[in-house]
Amino acid sequence: MRKPLSYGMYFKSHKKSSLAIMISIGLAILLIGAIQLYTFNMNDSDARNNEKYKYATLVYKNKKALDKAVIKKLENEASVERVVKVESFRYMIRSVFGTDADYEGFYADENDIKYMINKMGLKFDKGSYIKNGDKKILINENTARCKNASIGSFVGYDVRRDDYFPGKYKVNGILKGDNIVSFIAVDSKALEKENYMCFVFPKKGKMKEMNKYINSISKDGIKNSNYESLQKEEINNLNGFNTIFNLVIIIMIVVMSTVLGNSSYISYMRRRPEIGILKAMGYTKEKIVLRMVKEIAISSLFGFGFGYLALFVFAKIYNVLYLYPRGIALFLITWDLFPKLLSIPLFIAIFSIIPVSRLLEKVEPISIIERMG
């Protein structure tokens, strides 16, 4: 037997309005989820540039070469496995918003490059190692896709204005993964003529101990970049931007929830005869509200499922057609998304149930039955 105020019964007779509410909830979840994916992606893009610092710490002096005494101290430190002389260069790749993102590569001796590639767990997708002075370069696969470069292509400021390193270098190898780093091989003695810096690699399990020592000698102009400090810096830099985005998302959630809650309220206004009959049959206000809560929960559940599926499809299609071909960090749907997504059906329920419960107080079963008669 079909129950009074049954959701299935109502859905069959009001398919359009029920589907409209579900689709509206789904589209709201898709919109909020998509905005949040963009903010997460921006954070991921910055984090990829710091990936190399999970394996080593960069020690340097602004506009000056490191003193040999400092390098000697680092080499003699018990927690240090190897000190690699490098000089940095910069190049640009696109971010998800179409703006330029600044990434870092390194000049280093050919033997040191082999060591760094091994320590960072990098693997070749194509090509092979480079030799000192051969005017060749190793780049990451994401950089290659962004620049539409392949083995044999040329990069450098002479051929591309988004490469901030002078000269023209032939791509000799493409490295796999999201550790966005590039290498050019030069003799270590040539580095000493420049404002060189050092990549300091720890012994196994000694990263914290090594960084503690490096921090202790980071004075008199000596500075260092390690993964933990860089991540904190990125978070601080993005805090203002993320706060604005979060405020926009909260406002959108409240506005959408209010609109959809009002739609739900209008739907129940049309069902006053049904509600009046139930009250005349002896149904209490609490019982009727509980049934309404079940209806709203079912609509929200189907709407949430539709929205989440639409968001998943959107992320996959956007990854394949736009982000991956351009070497940009991919959209990832994580558990961090769920609190904001779940708040949409929750707010809709609140904005629906409160006015509907007030509606119940105004419904007079006798006058409704008389009108129906």
From TrEMBL:
Residues 247-360 form the ABC3 transporter permease C-terminal domain. It comes from the Bacteria. Keywords: Cell membrane, Membrane, Transmembrane, Transmembrane helix. The lineage of its organism: Bacteria, Bacillati, Bacillota, Clostridia, Eubacteriales. It is a multi-pass membrane protein. Pfam families: FtsX. This is ABC transporter permease. InterPro entries: ABC3_permease_C (IPR003838), Macrolide_Exporter_MacB (IPR050250). Belongs to the ABC-4 integral membrane protein family. It is found in: Cell membrane. The chain crosses the membrane at residues 20-40, 244-262, 296-321.
